[in-house]
Amino acid sequence: MYVYDQYDQHIIEDRVRQFRDQTRRYLAGELSGEEFRPLRLQNGLYIQRYAPMLRVAVPYGLLSSRQLRKLAEIARNYDKGYAHISTRQNVQFNWPELEDVPDILAELATVQMHAIQTSGNCIRNTTTDQFAGVARDELIDPRPWCEIIRQWSTFHPEFAFLPRKFKIAVNGAVSDRAAIEVHDIGLEAVQNAAGELGFRVSVGGGLGRTPIVGSFINEFLPWKHLLTYLDAILRVYNRYGRRDNKFKARIKILVKALTPEVFAERVEAEWAHLKDGPATLTEAEVERVSRFFIDPAYKALEDQDAALAALDAEHPGFARWRSRNVVAHKKPGYAAVTLSLKPTGVAPGDITDKQLDAVAELADRYCFGEVRNSHEQNIILADVEQSQLFTLWNELRELGLAVPNVGLLTDMICCPGGDFCSLANAKSIPIAESIQRRFDDLDYLFDIGELDLNISGCMNACGHHHVGHIGILGVDKKGAEFYQVSLGGSAGRNASLGQILGPSFAQDAMPDVIEKIIAVYVERRSEDEQFLDTFRRIGLDPFKERVYAANH
Amino acid sequence: MQRIIKNDQVVDESWHLLPKDATLDGLSNCDDLIVPLALWREHAHALKARDGGLGVWLDADEQIEEIAEDLAHFKVIALNFPAFTDGRHYSSARLLRERYGYKDEIRAIGDVLRDQLFLMRRCGFDAFAVRADRDPYDALEGLKDFSVTYQAAADDPRPLFLRRG
């Protein structure tokens, strides 16, 4: 992974100093609450329902074991002994004291971490595929490009006060695990016919209260122009994006208002001035950054299919875990393992300080000292030798990190919701738990198969409900917490947005509602058809009829 | 008399900033004036004929393209921040410096506070009329927030990747 040099380190240390002084001035009354607010947000600090919440940046999801241990220490010393993996691959602490935040940032800086631009109306953490660099279907490793974008976006002087937040995602594989089409900018690394590297550029995708799938405005942007082109897009947005209404301020509204074609023309016109300018990327820089992402010292190994099959036969639990939580690796004899942070009874994405320390230890022993966070709120050991999978599984079981549910209904994406977040209309964690409890039969869960169930506590859509195969949205109905259900969303390639099933439901009705939806799928599916396929074939009506039948 | 930050120092202000609805009536001939864009649009000829110094100010929704042909007439271009969270004029300042080659003073006016000065200077502002209820000497500290920067901007056309040793 990328390692800071003196320049990178200076920048985050300067930030700690700056924020320490800002906090001091706020506490001394020299900065008003209103003036401090955008400053603290650009440092990931929210004032929440019970305490501040600090969101720590994990650039494109990569963490070293040393960083994990530091996060564990912070969870112990400044929080209530746990942390939360967010849907932007970041890490959140729910209980720090405002006065302690400068010290926490100073601690983070010792392991090359920070909270820069994890909130606020600026360019946020760039996200990517959690299997970057190891996926079999990868064409181009997106990580060097993510790092180049991270440096470009960090304290970009022109774009610190955009109309609204701004999210960029990069994909370099056949499958789009980074959900690029629902980002403000989505970049897909591609090669043209001549074998040159470039990017397909999508703009104006996003969730929130106006969910839109992005439009591709450039089919091949040569790599060296990446930053000048991003500058051009951001400049058009900064100048012309709406600022009169917070809910119409995302770039998607501007792209829609102008039409993608006209927006693309504006960007081209701006870019014409910037293209080939001093911000044009050099081969030397791309090489410098890429050197941090070359393969670790893999051994020459063979795939262990027969040995693993024998273990499967002996240990059904291992077989189940392997079928859900282990994926193929580009190197023979290796595998990528997902540690599920979705056991029933734990808020999705939460992890304790002890588990963090243990995962660091496992990373050191099994995985070259590195892990990744996924936007599905799990943790991945990406480089495990297949011959060690069985011992790893046993260790993970003791840690409660081997629940074999990755990609299944109970592996939900879920925002912190009304239990923590002051924006939420409704709680989301108890809904997740009540559904997990209803679907506690592993055989049934496996039979249901691949299913993304996403829960957001409000229309800001942190839980990505629009792109869940089943999406649940907390709404306020005359002061009571209700839940709206949508079906058919998808965050993958050819992304789609869910369709609303009908009137919302009370909290205690939700397990029944989900059960009925699943029953319709199980009855109507043809062989090997996944939930999303069945939904696309039969449409909303059969689900609607079943779910609302009881009310007639 | 208001004091402003200019070229990293606190100095006495000698220019008069005219309100948005200012008219030609009773305009001083000799004072240094920063006039609103609307007045410049209407009365450019008369304003150029004055003996005093001339500057213009743009509100956050006014585009610098409107004055791109006229830059030689202005000793000061002031860009207004109705709220410090309105970032449009960061782009305007860069365009003035980097695209239109404007060399004279670019001044931030309005809700101008210490914690934004470093970024503003990077974009090409060299004068800051810090909000009247704040101490400009305190605000000066904001110009020292960072010792290293990643991007190309008006203060340095070379991004860090061209400067890394």
Strand order of the largest sheet of chain B: 2-1-8-7-6-5-4-3
> What is the first-to-last residue Cα distance of chain B?
46 Å
Q: State the CATH class of chain B.
A: Alpha Beta
Distance from N terminus to C terminus of chain A (CA atoms, Å) equals 58 Å
Strand content of chain B: 15-25%
- Rg of chain A (C-alpha, Å): 23 Å
Whole-angstrom Rg of chain B: 16 Å
Number of strands of chain B: 8
Helix content of chain B: 10-25%
* Biggest sheet details of chain A: 6 strands, mixed
- The best one-word shape of chain A is globular
Percent of sequence in beta strands of chain A = 15-25%
Question: What's the pLDDT, averaged over the residues of chain A?
Answer: 95
Unreliable residue runs of chain B: none
* Total number of domains of chain A: 4
- Give the assembly state of these chains: heterodimer
Helix content range of chain A = 25-40%
Task: Name the CATH superfamily classification of chain B.
Answer: Aldolase class I
List segments of chain A where confidence is low: pLDDT < 50 over at least 5 consecutive residues: none
**Molecular shape of chain B:** globular
Mind explaining what this structure looks like?
The complex is a heterodimer of chains A (552) and B (165). Chain A is of the alpha+beta class. Chain A folds into 4 domains: 104 residues, Sulfite Reductase Hemoprotein, domain 2; 157 residues, Sulfite Reductase Hemoprotein, domain 1 (2-Layer Sandwich); 95 residues, Sulfite Reductase Hemoprotein, domain 2; 137 residues, Sulfite Reductase Hemoprotein, domain 1 (2-Layer Sandwich). Chain A is 37% helix and 17% strand. Chain A contains 18 helices and 21 strands. In chain A, the strands form 4 sheets. In chain A, strands 16, 17, 18, 19, 20 and 21 form a 6-stranded mixed beta sheet that branches. In chain A, strands 1-2-5-4-13 form a 5-stranded antiparallel beta sheet. A 5-stranded antiparallel beta sheet of chain A has the order 3-14-15-12-11. In chain A, strand 18 and strand 19 form a beta hairpin. In chain A, helix 1 runs antiparallel to helix 2, helix 10 crosses helix 11 and helix 16 crosses helix 18. The longest helix of chain A has 22 residues. The radius of gyration of chain A is 23 Å and the shape is globular. The mean pLDDT of chain A is 95. Chain B is an alpha/beta fold. Chain B has one domain: Aldolase class I (TIM Barrel). In chain B, 24% of the residues lie in helices and 20% in strands. Chain B is built from 5 helices and 8 strands. An 8-stranded mixed beta sheet of chain B has the order 2-1-8-7-6-5-4-3. The radius of gyration of chain B is 16 Å and the shape is globular. Chain B starts with a strand and ends with a helix. The mean pLDDT of chain B is 96.
